[in-house]
Amino acid sequence: MGRSYQKNPEILEKVSNNNDQKVLHVFDREGEISEVFEEAQKHQNCGVLIRAAHNRSLSEQEDYLWDYMEKQPVQFEQEIELPKNHQRKKRTVTSAIKFSPVKLRSPQRLKSTKSFDIYAVYLASLRRQRAGGRRQKVELSVE
After folding, report:
1. What is the pTM of this model?
2. Is the pLDDT of residue 24 over 70?
């Protein structure tokens, strides 16, 4: 389970009772576990932003997250400057950004929660998308 939830229950309780404050937990792929989503939904002023690691099953559609997000319309395009590193030259890419509310199916081990209401944000390189490439990045956000 996400350690920030385990170590800071008093912060979550304090924020839950104060409408002027909000806590946003940011995780990379290792933070994408169902217990994190479950805990975030318990606290009104708490949110999470997680880089997706798993192609999760959706609760209300017979589909999976990545395939579902690929079918969504592009909301806007954004140019992003990628700095030079040891593997590539500095360059600018144009990315397509998609987002949509979805319900992720909860695993059977979590008896009290049937699904998680989240927003999925999908970012893909337009060049790669036009060439038929697979997903680039999906972020999951609970608010």
Report:
1. 0.71
2. yes
